[in-house]
Write a structure and sequence with these properties.
With 280 residues, this protein is mostly helical. The protein has eleven helices and four strands; from the N terminus they run ααααββααααββααα.
Length: 280
């Protein structure tokens, strides 16, 4: 017993217990922690293929190492600026290239959506290369894109999140709207669920970033469900007027409605019955 007690009080016993505890804690964290980027699930060949595509189509603006490029310009013609892509993650690449915004055709206040220049495989390869440079948001899992499985209550909850965080720019039904300095919030009608999720994750252009700490993946899915529900909602009034809100609706009423009444009243005045006074 005395020998066993002496071994228990050995100076290295505390360090051994601490090391075992750290190993157990690290193992449990690695098993349950979310992945920061998709580079770990891609092959070296995909990353290298993505790098080659990046050097050909993206490096002229973003730099050969994706560090970004700033060139000098004038007051009338600002320099070309390609931001750093280190740490933006695979989700940002998938959104920008998957919606055709990148590569940009020309310098503008923001990149408009246009025809996609790369195939899905090429976009995936470039995303894998960018994800390999530094941790960043990953492409969302399919379970967070299945908006068709949402209940009416979940869609209504998504509407609450959307009206609180998105209506100021995208309109209450996701029709989009104008912003200062030549920018605009694009319409969300017809946008893929994956790209809506990635936009919330990464905050493209002037859009703020809604991380999972701000809006959880389940709440993002509910927002997607609301947007998709609004895009398929019938126009019970018969004419939507673009769904741009009270300003456009009021303009329509004044120009078409009041204008029509004024025109009709004028027509009656010209074609109505006229009487003449008889001479005494």
């Amino acid at each position: 017993m005395r020998t066993l007690s002496t071994r228990r009080r050995h100076p290295l016993a505390g360090l051994l217990v601490l090391a075992v505890g750290l190993l157990i804690t690290g193992g449990l964290y690695a098993a349950v922690a979310p992945k920061a980027a998709t580079a770990e699930t891609t092959s070296i060949d995909d990353i290298e293929a993505g790098r080659q595509l990046f050097l050909v189509g993206c490096a002229s603006c973003h730099g050969v190492n994706a560090q970004g490029i700033v060139t000098e310009g004038t007051d009338d013609q600002p320099g070309n600026y390609g931001p750093s892509l280190i740490g933006v993650g695979a989700a940002s690449v998938d959104f920008q290239m998957g919606t055709g915004r990148m590569p940009m055709a020309q310098t503008a206040p923001q990149a408009p959506r246009k025809k996609i220049e790369y195939s899905e495989e090429e976009i995936s390869q470039v995303a894998a290369y960018i994800a390999s440079l530094a941790p960043g948001p990953q492409i969302p899992d399919e379970r967070y894109l299945d908006y068709e499985s949402l209940s009416d209550e979940e869609i209504a909850r998504g509407g609450e999140f959307f009206r609180t965080n998105c209506t100021a720019c995208h309109n209450s039904v996701g029709a989009g709207g104008a912003l200062p300095n030549g920018r605009y919030a694009p319409s969300l009608h017809g946008v893929e669920a994956k790209h809506i999720y990635e936009a919330m994750q990464t905050g493209p252009q002037q859009m703020p970033v809604f991380s999972d700490d701000v809006i959880t993946p389940e709440e993002k899915l509910a927002v997607i469900g609301y947007v998709r529900a609004m895009s398929t909602e019938p126009d019970y009034g018969g004419f939507s007027g673009g769904n741009f809100g009270p300003v456009s609706d009021g303009l329509f009423v004044w120009v078409i409605g009041i204008g029509g009444l004024v025109g009709f009243a004028t027509w009656i005045g010209w074609h109505g019955t006229r009487t003449k006074k008889k001479k005494a």
